[in-house]
Each structure stands twice: as C-alpha cells, then as structure tokens.
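WARN retry 2 of 3 for item q-0093 after timeout on previous attempt; input resubmitted unchanged.
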Amino acid sequence: MKKILFLAFMALGMSAMAQHVTPLSIQLADVKLDSLRTLYINEPTMYRAALEVVAQSLAKNAEEIKAAKAELKVEQTHGKEMANSIKEATKMAASLKKLYTKEESELKSMQKVVEKQQKTLNKQKELNQSTRDNYLLFLEKQQKELGYSLREVADRQRAIADLETSIQNGQTRLQTYIQETQQKALDLAQLEAQLKEKNNTLKAEQKSAKSLQQ
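OK item q-0093 returned
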C-alpha cells in the first residue's frame, strides 16, 4: 500500500509539471537622436544633457537584460532537473512494471498449483474426513492469500500505468518548457544586439556633440 501511495504521489508530481518560463517584458529605450538634435540644435549643453538621459535609460535596459539572463539560467537549470526527474521516474516505472509482471506470473503459477492440489484432494477418497478437512482448509487459506496478493499486484500495476501516463504528459510539458527557455535565450540575444547597436549610436552622437561644443 505504501508503494501505491508513493506511486500516486509521483504521478501527482508529474501531472503538476505544467510550468512556464517568466516572459520577457523589457522595452528598450527609444533613441530618437534626429528629434533630439532638431529640438536642441541651438542648445548644445541641453542636447548633451538629453543624450545623457538616453544613456541612463539604456543603462537601465542593460541591468534588466542582466537580471533576465540570470533568471533564464535558473530556468534552464530547472529544466535539466525536471528532465532528470522524468528520466529517473521512467526507469523506476519500467523496473517496477517488470517486477510486478513477474510477481503476478509467480502468484498465478502458485494459484494453479493450489488448484491442482485441491483437485487431487477431491479424488483421494481414501483419506479420512479430518485429514481432508484440515488440508482443504489449508489450501483454501492459501487461495485466499494468493487472491489478496493478486488484487494488490493489480492495484500496483494500475498505479504504474497511471504513472506512465503522467510521465508521458510530463515529457510533453517539459519539451514545451525547454522550447520556451530556448526562445527566451534567442530573444535575449536579440535584445542584447539591439542594445549594443543603440549604445554604439549614442556614443558616436555624444562624441559628436562634445566636439561641436568645444
């Protein structure tokens, strides 16, 4: 019974694996240099101050990307842990399924032996009633215990079947989760490239604005 409860717990754990990565919500600062240049064309000091504000926004974006990358790393590690859990659960389920199938086969073989003994006893008319009754009671007790054991094995086999279904569902959810981490990594790489481009453009403009003021 403890094994069945354990398997039920495992199945519950697998079915609860509908997890998703935290979506990205980073909005890169909009670097409208042409508009700023036009706005502060005759005010170089104000223009440089406006460019500094843009630089601060981009620096904030850099921190957001850094935090998102750290978050992604944890999510990727979690994905590996889930994959290992599924792998171990799969091995355990296969091992127990084989064990219970063998146990069922042995119990049924024993059941046939007892049934054969009962038939043999019924043919042995020469035995006195007391001997027959005592042996018959012993065989009936064996049959009862074997029947109980077979029902218990059947319960465990059903638990294994449920676990296998949960594992399959968990594998599907894991694949979705892994795809989400991969997409998030691509999105972050794209954001980093865009941020780098914006920073390069801004630095060139700041350098130009500084030379114009001098």
